[in-house]
Design a protein that fits this description.
Blueprint lengths: L1 E6 L10 E4 L2 E3 L9 E4 L7 E10 L5 E9 L5 E3 L15 E9 L5 E5 L7 E4 L2 E4 L3 E9 L13 E3 L6
Antiparallel strand pairs: 1-3, 1-5, 2-4, 5-6, 7-8, 8-12, 9-11, 9-13, 10-12
Length: about 160
Amino acid sequence: APYRIRPLWQDKGPVSPFSSSPLEGRIAALEKQQIRVTFTPNNPGAPFIDYLSVECVGSHTETTVTCVANATRPSVTLSSRCIEFSSVYCNTSAKRVIEIRNSSNVSSVYQFLNATNTVFSVVPCTGRMEANSKHNLTITFHPTDPLPYYRRLSCLILHQDPV
């Protein structure tokens, strides 16, 4: 008997992250046919649910297959949340190295806000983190006046809360 598979989300707006193949074919009586359903999310961290309609062409039988999946989010962390420079003379520099680590199986992008052209700088201040990777970041403190300095730097991570 011939069969046809069609996504039920086809007429409902955005493209679904689910696709299937083959979309049509012929199957003999009492036989099985494997259908490959592929999940390609465009929004990590979000749950997805969609439906496929499997119909036997020529008869009035139709089955709905529910597709449910969660997209993996990046998991980016810093080795230190606070960096102490102690006393540094004016117009000299002190440097500290911290590690940024992506411990998930998806890549991510990071960006430090207000991390250049101030007494504190981060190098590199933007970058791409491959899955399960780590990079060193150099934080430089270059005071220009004899003052106590405190600065909170925000690190934005694509598809994750800031760290």
